């Protein structure tokens, strides 16, 4: 049997290699470290955690991340097994001893007879064989160039310009209203495609003051890049003049507040639908380098967002990722060259757990293909299925940015539609449905 080749031994590549080998298929795992390093990695170990030691919430009843943990454990995931073995006290979160965790993953992969680890840099994309590209947010320049040549110059981003994403059911629609600027659009849905949050002059001035005073993060060494005007951080725009935002993403023209039609807003913050389900909205033009704590404080100053729940906060940082909704099929294969699968953060998922989960799924799909079978993704009522559905078609391609798993990616429960008061009932219903459906998916293999 021909081996599955995997490029990158981060969390996604390590998990993919484990899953392929557990299916009885040989693996060649290519990792350029330690011979070729990155500005963030310190070792040549597999599954090195470079940003934090947390896999976030381990609550598989009330939290979508915890549900993803549950699914990975149910599927025999190596990453979760080693995380559990090396966990540290962290309340309801799953935190690990980073060095011990990475060493344990590396040891497990090296001990598996079907896995061969090669310390080499893959600089080109092979046009035959069964390959998984799991190179993460720090894809090497040579391989990134190869991906760009194959997919198109605009298909691979090198810096996230991330606007915050808000759960739709946390927006106060007694303050906000639906309307596209100048009522543009041929259908009623298009004419109501944006949610608008109005500001008075006093509210706008207070917002600018808070924005300018907020704590910001800085680029790390090796991560710097010049801004371009299409994705300036909002605080940089504000520094250019207090009225800049009001003449940019917060301009009030072409809009009429349906709650108060006679009073013209001084400024308007617009939110645009971010997924097919209509459960998530991104704040238009609000990419930022503010620290996360500052973001929640400042953005909740916006009328209508005073109780906003954030599926993702904003940022601008080095992160190579594909425009996956336009490039990948529902088996995570490159449509133009289907012998190549992509997994991990390069597909546009955000976070350690999400990356490992996409590696788990890509590994199982590649192993099935090697054995002459076809494996579909889990139902998108599951955490893993919701993620892969989002990156391969559920997200809006024009505004696609990396995303963490969250309940906004799950299809709504018809019997439990509603606002914040229903969450204590809805979240357990989401996770129970996910457990049932994921278990059925596993049993069918």
UniProtKB/TrEMBL annotation:
In the record, the note on similarity to other proteins reads: Belongs to the MnmG family. TrmFO subfamily.
State the gene name recorded for this protein: trmFO
| All copies of domain MnmG N-terminal, residue ranges | 4-373
What keywords sit in the KW lines? Cytoplasm, FAD, Flavoprotein, Methyltransferase, NAD, NADP, Transferase, tRNA processing
At the top level of its lineage, which domain of life is listed?
A: Bacteria
- Highest classification ranks of the organism: Bacteria, Pseudomonadati, Pseudomonadota, Alphaproteobacteria, Rhodobacterales
Its principal location? cytoplasm
User: Which Pfam families has this protein been placed in?
Assistant: GIDA
SUPFAM superfamilies (UniProt xref): FAD/NAD(P)-binding domain
Q: Output this protein's name.
A: Methylenetetrahydrofolate--tRNA-(uracil-5-)-methyltransferase TrmFO
* Presence of keyword Transferase: yes
Name the needed cofactors.
FAD
Among InterPro entries, the record links this protein to:
FAD/NAD-bd_sf (IPR036188), MnmG-rel (IPR002218), MnmG-rel_CS (IPR020595), MnmG_N (IPR040131), TrmFO (IPR004417)
Q: What's its catalytic activity?
A: uridine(54) in tRNA + (6R)-5,10-methylene-5,6,7,8-tetrahydrofolate + NADH + H(+) = 5-methyluridine(54) in tRNA + (6S)-5,6,7,8-tetrahydrofolate + NAD(+); uridine(54) in tRNA + (6R)-5,10-methylene-5,6,7,8-tetrahydrofolate + NADPH + H(+) = 5-methyluridine(54) in tRNA + (6S)-5,6,7,8-tetrahydrofolate + NADP(+)
Task: Quote the function comment for this protein.
Answer: Catalyzes the folate-dependent formation of 5-methyl-uridine at position 54 (M-5-U54) in all tRNAs.
Per the UniProt record, the source organism is Paracoccus maritimus
Which EC number(s) does UniProt give? 2.1.1.74
Coiled coil segments of this chain: none
As for subcellular location, the record says: Cytoplasm
Residues annotated as binding FAD are 8-13
Q: Which PROSITE patterns match?
A: GIDA_2
